[in-house]
Request: fold
Amino acid sequence: MNKRKLIIVLSVILCTSLIFTSCEGLDFEFIKGEFSTCDEYQEKVRASDFTVYDQLNNKVSYSDHKGKPTVVLFYGVSYSVVTREYMMMFDTIYRKYKDKVNFMIVHLSCFYMGNKEDAETLVAGLSFPAYFDLDRSAEYAYSVTGHPRTIIIDADGYIYHDQTGTIDSSYLEKHIGRVLNGEPYVTEVPKRCGCYFK
Reply:
């Protein structure tokens, strides 16, 4: 074997050895299809405060709800069968977890040009607390560009989960259960409920 071939062979052996040695400390969980927690890669994000109005036109802020995890749903559409069913799903979850979790169901005026009374028809008869972003405080606080948007905030006031788009009840309950149990957030693709908001 000439000198040039020997150098090539030794170089290949050396590179292969380095690759396998460096991989010994790696976590291959991601390759298996599992996901690492957000906390390993970035600092926690504190939830921004915002002020909205309840159905009696009283001002209510997110900061009034601190001390327990909070589920915030931003939406901005008028009444339809699809959106009403979506609200009913959130109402079912609210009635199940209302003693452990705060809920703020917030209508965004920026996505809907009707008045407050029109928006109220979508949540009429439901038991969760409905709010209206008449001053666009929530919109600006979270730079909302799409809806529905669901944000779960932990008891310490940090954003645990932030999802734009429709989700199903099992997906929502799973993340509520995780934040109640103090589990780290795990990135995953959400399961859609099949709703389409226009």
